[in-house]
């Protein structure tokens, strides 16, 4: 069973667990955006009333506990960094903590290595006669991108020969407070003015809100990418402005407008011509480090054959990603920073050891329980042993309008898989806490949390029926706190005296519960790992499947007492 991993021949055989049996059906349930926070009116999980999830708490500390889901515990640069789905699912599936994209980009910029790599050399060829275009999320959220990295890179690229720079901004309001796009645009305008003083022709060329322009994911809606393409490449958009700051301010004045959903706009000169469409001979960099919401654009920029929408014009450019976004597809083929090499994930080990696996979520989180879980790897390890099911997400309906999302459908699929007896592991992601939480709509988020609790009930009932085991956890916080707070924890008010709504993830820990008739009464959480995090879950699940985890995995959360 040898195969290559990390340049070595890897032995995939896992040692038997000395005490725990094999053959149990295990449900592994990830509640997306479901942290633990004090009960108050901004804690949607608390307000919703979640009897199933609450019932697990009674098992504390032996069968319910909290684990870390943010900062260095999941490979992010610092402990002020909130968790996110990519790093969360990576840690859950890989069982080890990897320095993640954000940190790798920081290091490459600080050392200057980013300018020495093949990716930069490739795009630099265009600097003499062409424009360097930078496309990405404009915020300091640190989930998909960071403004300070963009700033450093623009400065560095200009010092390494870029003479003409055009930035195509995507406004955030999801990983950061709504309305902050104005400040970020101001900052960027100042940076560009400084570059102009140095003789660089540097401008913002286009923009739009991330959820409406460019940053779709898992091919849910290609129109989102097309809207961006039209503005960024063709220089066409329904709104034209002389300045990006004016654009963001004006478009935010529309009723119900917010940063996440700003319509696409292009910046035009005195004659009404777009200042920076992407043309033959230009260089393009997508400066997001995280893959899921930029890889669709990467396909449009890179693939000669492409049928997802009519590109009208396919410019001959040199394109590089900040990172390579898909290691299997080798996409994009040029990139500035090498992504973490996540290998020997728990999913791959378990499949090699005979564990038949079912994974399911709805479109918006499907890649989370498959691609991210498997160390940013597409597809099956062994199609005969695995089945991945995607429940189509609603398209074009905001998540606060349909806050139940597909939680019950996913639960029914999981139930079916559990009762079928065909799988040892049934793994799902329930998206509501996160996706509805990001809308900032408290009422809808409460409804979403209720739906998640019901879905968990369905899955746990199925596990009861087959004598199995459940492991219920989450990837990071979101729905448990919808208020921006000061250091003392008091909600912050805006200038009108209203509480500032937190649409982003949080720094809170997340729960993990284990149970089910298949779990021996002698199994309980250890008391000696107070700082455990998401990366400790993989070894735990391996144990419950009857195996010992590899030595370099973070330690298991459980012990077997006589
Ligand atoms: O991409 C998003 O929707 C948010 O920026 C992060 O959410 P996720 O990490 O839960 O996917
Ligand atoms: Mn998530
Ligand atoms: Mn999220």
Automatic annotation (TrEMBL):
Residues that hold substrate according to the record: 144, 174-175, 210, 217, 290-293, 365
GO-annotated molecular function: manganese ion binding; phosphoglycerate mutase activity
InterPro entries, alphabetized: Alkaline_phosphatase_core_sf, BPG-indep_PGM_N, Metalloenzyme, PGAM_B_sf, Pgm_bpd_ind
Protein name (database record): 2,3-bisphosphoglycerate-independent phosphoglycerate mutase
The Metalloenzyme domain, residue ranges: 24-548
Keywords: Glycolysis, Isomerase, Manganese, Metal-binding
Domain of life: Eukaryota
Residues annotated for Mn(2+) 2 binding in this entry: 32, 85, 475-476
SUPFAM superfamilies with a match to the protein in the record: 2,3-Bisphosphoglycerate-independent phosphoglycerate mutase, substrate-binding domain, Alkaline phosphatase-like
Organism: Turnera subulata
Family classification: Belongs to the BPG-independent phosphoglycerate mutase family.
NCBIfam families per record: pgm_bpd_ind
Any one Pfam family match given in the protein's UniProt record, by short name: Metalloenzyme
Subunit structure: Monomer.
Annotated Mn(2+) 1 binding sites: 434, 438, 505
Cofactor: Mn(2+)
EC number, UniProt record: 5.4.2.12
């Amino acid at each position: 069973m040898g195969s290559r991993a990390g340049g070595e021949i890897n032995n995939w055989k896992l040692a038997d667990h000395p005490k725990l049996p094999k053959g149990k059906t295990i449900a592994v349930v990830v509640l997306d955006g479901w942290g633990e926070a004090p009960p108050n009116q901004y804690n949607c999980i608390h307000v919703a009333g979640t009897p199933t999830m609450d019932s697990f708490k009674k098992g504390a500390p032996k069968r319910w506990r909290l684990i870390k889901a943010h900062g260095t515990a999941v490979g992010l640069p610092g402990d002020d960094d909130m968790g996110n789905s990519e790093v969360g699912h990576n840690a859950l599936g890989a069982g080890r903590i990897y320095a993640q994209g954000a940190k790798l980009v920081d290091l490459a910029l600080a050392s200057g290595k980013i300018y020495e790599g093949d990716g930069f050399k490739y795009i630099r060829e265009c600097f003499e006669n062409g424009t360097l275009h930078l496309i990405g999320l404009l915020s300091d959220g640190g989930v998909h991108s960071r403004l300070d990295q963009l700033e450093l890179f623009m400065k560095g690229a200009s010092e390494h020969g870029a003479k003409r720079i055009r930035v195509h901004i995507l406004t955030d309001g999801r990983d950061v407070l709504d309305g902050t796009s104005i400040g970020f645009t101001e900052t960027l305008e100042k940076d560009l003015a400084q570059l102009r003083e140095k003789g660089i022709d540097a401008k913002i060329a286009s923009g739009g809100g991330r959820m409406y322009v460019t940053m779709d994911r898992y091919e849910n809606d290609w129109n989102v990418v097309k809207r961006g393409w039209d503005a960024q490449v063709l220089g066409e958009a329904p709104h034209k402005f002389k300045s990006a700051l004016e654009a963001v301010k004006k478009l935010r004045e529309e009723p119900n407008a917010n940063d996440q959903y700003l319509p696409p706009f292009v910046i035009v000169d005195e004659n009404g011509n777009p200042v920076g469409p992407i043309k033959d001979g230009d260089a393009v960099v997508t400066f997001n480090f995280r893959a899921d919401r930029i890889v669709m654009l990467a396909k449009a920029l890179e693939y000669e054959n492409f049928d997802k929408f009519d590109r009208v014009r396919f410019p001959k450019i040199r394109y590089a990603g900040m990172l390579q976004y898909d290691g299997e597809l080798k996409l994009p083929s040029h990139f500035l920073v090498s992504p973490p090499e996540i290998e020997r994930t728990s999913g791959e080990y378990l499949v090699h050891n005979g564990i038949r696996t079912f994974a399911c979520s709805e479109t918006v989180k499907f890649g989370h329980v498959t691609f991210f879980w498997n160390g940013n790897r597409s597809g099956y390890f062994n199609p005969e042993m695995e089945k991945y099911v995607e429940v189509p997400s609603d398209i074009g309906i905001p998540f606060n309008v349909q806050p139940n999302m597909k939680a019950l459908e996913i639960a029914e699929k999981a139930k079916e898989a559990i009762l079928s007896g065909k799988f040892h592991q049934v793994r799902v992601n329930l998206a509501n806490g996160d996706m509805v939480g990001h809308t900032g709509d408290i009422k809808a988020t409460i409804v979403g949390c209720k739906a998640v609790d019901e879905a968990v009930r369905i899955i746990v009932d199925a596990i009861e029926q087959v004598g199995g085991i459940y492991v219920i956890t989450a990837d990071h916080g979101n729905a448990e706190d919808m208020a921006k707070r000061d250091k003392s924890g008091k909600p912050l008010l805006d200038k009108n005296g209203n509480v500032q709504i937190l649409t982003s993830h949080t720094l809170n820990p997340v729960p993990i519960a284990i149970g089910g008739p298949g779990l021996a009464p002698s199994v309980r959480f250890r008391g000696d790992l107070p700082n455990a995090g998401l990366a400790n879950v993989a070894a735990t699940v391996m144990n419950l499947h009857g195996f010992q985890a590899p030595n370099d995995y973070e330690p298991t959360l459980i012990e077997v007492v006589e």
